[in-house]
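Quick illustration, no need to memorize.
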Amino acid sequence: MLKKYFKDSLWKFYTADFLSSIVFSIAVLVPFYTDWGHLNLAQVQIIQAWFMFWAFIMEVPTGVIADRFSRQYSVALGAILIAISSLIYGSIANFEVFLFCEFLSAIAYALVSGANDALLYDTLKEQGKEEESKKIMGRVSAISTTGVIAGTIFGSLIAAKFGLNVPMLATAIPFTLAAIVILTIKEPAIKEKTSKVQNYLDIAKNGISFFYHHKSLKILALDSLVVVVAAYFLVWLYQPMLQNLGVPIFYFGFIRAGMSANQILLSSNFEFLEKTFGSAQAFLKTSALIIGILFLLVAAFPSVLTVLLFVVIGGGLSMSRSTLINVYMNKHIPSEQRATVLSSITMVSRITLAITGPLVGIMADHSLRGTIFIVGLLPLAVFLFSPLKQEVLEERLAAA
């Protein structure tokens, strides 16, 4: 088994993704902000909007750096910045310090966004495994989610025993190790051969223009964006709901781990799910409906059981759904523009969250259940109105 695991460079991607998914602080993030950091939910979302703003500003420049120079170094630097940010974040409970840490995190995530998937996809292409991309990227997602499970379970245990800020401090360890592993990955030669544009602005302009003029890619991105927004707020709203229900901090990580375990199950079985539902389009449409219903259910009947269903099933579906759409989006993008185009798509989602986050935070401070109900209308809108068709999913790059 070990020989099979180490037989090619993919093990490095698996290991790096596992380590960079171990974020101990996720398990108790809202209590970290509200109890240790003494913030309300509106302030929490202002901090997140600040992160999204800087991630938006940095998205295309960092994508250009990855395409023009090295995706490997871009991803490694991102991991190192996350480690530094975590150490500062967990040391000082101050709103302005939190803003500075989110600035560092925004640069980090922008460096990783797009470049990470592009590095893996072009490695597969160079190895002649492009047709296996759905299976392998699903496997990467499953391995990453295993890291999330480990981080959330141990994060809640660490918080319960040592304090709410200690999981944040501990997060620096796996990210530092991830950076070391990433630096041992060989940059695919295929990107060097296909990248012909030398001017930074031309690379960014061509990448964004490709996305803007590609109808099928825009449909995929829009469909994904709406559900991603709902999933984002699910993560921020379920912990206050658990606190209101009197659930101890000790169990928070186990509940989040349940969501991640479901994500692993779904992400590892994309082909089975598509066959079961009849098509990828049918699965994506039905999953949006289920996610929306679970939002409304927990808003109308809040209990430990409904929150569990909301987090485990709704959260798992949301995350795995996003992974599947990302696989199909990659089929529409040429290698030399992959990092920049994916970065531009992520940029749109981040600016959307930056605008809506503070509003949702203010609403949640006044009515948590009402906010969950309103956010739940988003995936229902995807189910009812999304123009995504099976033809779009089956379309190839040559047809663009």
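The chain has one domain: 11-399.
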